Structure prediction request, 343 residues.
Amino acid sequence: MASSLHPKATSRRPKAGTINMTATIDDLPIELVDRILFYMPNHDNILQLRCVNRDLASKTSRSFAKAYFAESTWNVNGRTIRALGKLSKTTSICFHMTSVHLVGPTESAKKYENFLLAKGLDAAKLRIALRALPSLSILKFENFEYKDSHTFFRKLLVNLPLATLTTFHLEKVTVSAASVATFIKRNKKILQNFDFDTVNLKGPEEECGHAIPWATMLQAILSIKKTCDIGISNPKVSGKDALLLPDIDLYDEEFYFKSLYISYERETCDSEDEGGYWSGNWEDENGWWCYHVRAEEQWRESLELLIRYYEYRIHQCEDDSEPPCYTDEEDMACDCDVCGNYR
Prediction:
């Protein structure tokens, strides 16, 4: 009677040779979990999966770090600097942070006695956080054009060694040429790619009264032994356009020399034919000069010539000698004292 009321218990263990169909995703190894997440169409699926349980949160840490922190953009203030500091100490995340884009605060109508302090821009704490990122290969600063930005960068860059950094990008930044030059020389073993877009350089003046900050910074790149790729767009010095060409009237809109390519870019108006038009001379248009030294075998000679271009224009030779390498097609040998017979 008792046996009929209490049926015999059966084992829940699967028989030998059978497959356990009750296995779930949290039973899979980390490698398979990563593979599954790779094919998910939306990164938010990773966040949802991490909320299921602690085991899945642990197994999805690598995919989570790659999805949200491999290429990260930060609006720099006191809170984000502290967050970067914490992430740099989190091993499951910091090893996957390969690209960091830092956007500076925009100055408002309100005036601050100390803008850096008011916005919580602690260069020392940010420097510590960046140095602690073991895989950082791309570093970009954007929108640091306020009054004290050069002071901020001097405190940040002068003592900032980054062992894995290959690409350095500045866009809409006011900075001291000496600070950037020191940073480049400190990291010259692996740095190879440079992009300077609307960079306003500040630097000391020579005895003759001519400031040459772009020469100071580009000379630092020459200390690198590896092949480099250098892009410069709309360069400035102390808020004014810095023309690296010796005389724009002697050059067309495009100029080539070995690995050096110089072009004049401008905004075009919408039209039916080829997207726009341009007319007039250089001074009448809202355009800018771009300089590109390609990562080729002759990149060093090309960069040296660009520096000589700039120095020639700054010093403005008193005699009527032609600028560096300005020769016609029949005479390919340049005898000027500035360029040193590059051709």
